[in-house]
Amino acid sequence: MKRPSSNLLALLRADASVAVLTGAGISAESGLPTFRGAGGWWKNYRAENLATPEAFQKNPRLVWEWYNHRRDLVGQHAPNPGHLALAQLESLCKTFALITQNVDGYHQRAGSANVSELHGNVMKSRCSGCGHECEAGMENWKDGLPYCSCGALYRPGVVWFGETLPATALQNAFVAAENSRFLFVVGTSSVVYPAAALPQLALERGAYVVEINDEATPLTPRADEFLQGRAGEILPALVALIQLQEGLPDKR
Ligand code: BV8
Ligand code: ZN
Q1: Is the bond leading into 194 cis (omega within 30 degrees of zero)?
Q2: Is the pLDDT of residue 144 over 80?
């Protein structure tokens, strides 16, 4: 596991305005499959058949089968030390924003308060007719499909390829990338836009960008620091080092 540099720790001590962008890699140690790596969803399935509006229109049963399976996985597993460390980091920083591409809700379950979900949440459903939103399990299921009281089908409360992102979450993400002194980019392959544009924006605004990933990504050559290894090990170690330094204000 690569250790954070003394430069990073000294800078953090001086100005702890921090943003974090997370991806599927942070939940991998909880037991949730990632998308693109070894064992990832897209190794065995095609995104076009499961995660697009066209796929849902063509075969809603198949799409719901996949999302119900993912709901089961989210329920069977739990946040790991990486999620918990980010919740702790929030309490140590002057300003803190957590931007996630994940749909599992594990950051909130770990205790993070200021979370912006760029790609929605798999434990929510939204009516494709009237737009009504409900929690998983509150739908009225018939022949493998969930119906709203208006008669239209519910869809999973996530953002599919080709769809726009929720406006507030996206706005929060851009504001955080533009204004934070640090951006930690954790467990994402950095290939899905617009999320993948956030680190570049932060770099252009002079932020110190730290990537935490067990493999190099397209971001790696541009990041100020690349901490190669597992998020569930690196993040708790980083938070412990910051706590050791003392002097960082606890905003709670
Ligand atoms: C949009 C659904 C505006 C939710 C997901 C060309 C053609 C068509 C479209 C495009 C195109 N070029 C660009 C686009 C736009 C497209 C896009 O970016 N495509 C890319 C792939 C080319 N983007 C969109 O369509 C977005 N919307 O742009 O709107 C618009 C609208 C209309 C018309 C024009 C413009 C919407 C994107 C939303 C996609 N939704 N899924 C779900 O079911 O979950 S995508 C999927 O990828 C996931 O949701 C996930 O959130 C996202 C990102 O993946 P990662 O989180 O990075 O996961 P990945 O597996 O890739 O990587 C894991 C990483 O973790 C690896 O690097 C690995 O090394 C690391 N790791 C593993 N274990 C660990 C670890 N690291 C540390 N510790 C560990 N233990
Ligand atoms: Zn409805």
Answers
A1: yes
A2: yes
67 lines ligand 1 (CB under 6 A): no
Do residues 190 and 242 both lie within one domain?
yes
Task: Looking at the structure, tell me whether residues 23 and 37 fall in a common domain.
Answer: no
Ligand 1 centroid, distance to 51 Cα (angstroms): 11
Same-domain check for residues 238 and 145: no
Which residue range is the domain that position 41 belongs to?
A: 33-76+122-158
Number of domains in the chain: 2
35 CA closest ligand 1 atom index: 60
Q: How far is the CA of 25 from the centre of ligand 1 (A)?
A: 12
Give the ligand with the smallest distance to the CA of 151.
2
Which ligand does the CA of 146 lie closest to? 2
Are 225 and 239 part of one and the same domain? Answer: yes
Q: Report whether residue 51 contacts ligand 1, using a CB cutoff of 6 Å.
A: yes
Token reading at 64: 């719901």
Q: Is the dihedral of CA 121, 125, 128, 133 positive or negative?
A: negative
Of 225, 189, 194, 192, the C-alpha closest to 207 is: 225
Same domain, 144 and 239: no
Q: What pLDDT, in 10s, does the model give residues 33-88? A: 999 988 999 998 999 999 999 999 999 999 999 999 999 999 999 999 999 999 99
* Out of 3-12, 74-83, 173-182, 183-192, least confident range: 3-12
Long-range contacts of 75-78 (CB under 8 A, 24+ apart): 76/31, 77/27, 77/30, 77/31, 77/32, 78/30, 78/106, 78/109
Are 57 and 170 members of one domain? no
Instruction: Tell me: pLDDT of 15 over 90.
Output: no
- Residues with beta carbon < 5 A to ion ligand 2? 127, 129-130, 132, 148, 150, 152
Where residue 147 sits, what CATH number does that domain have? Answer: 3.30.1600.10
Q: Which of 35, 71, 184, 228 has most ligand 1 atoms within 8 Å of its beta carbon, as the pocket-test mutant?
A: 35
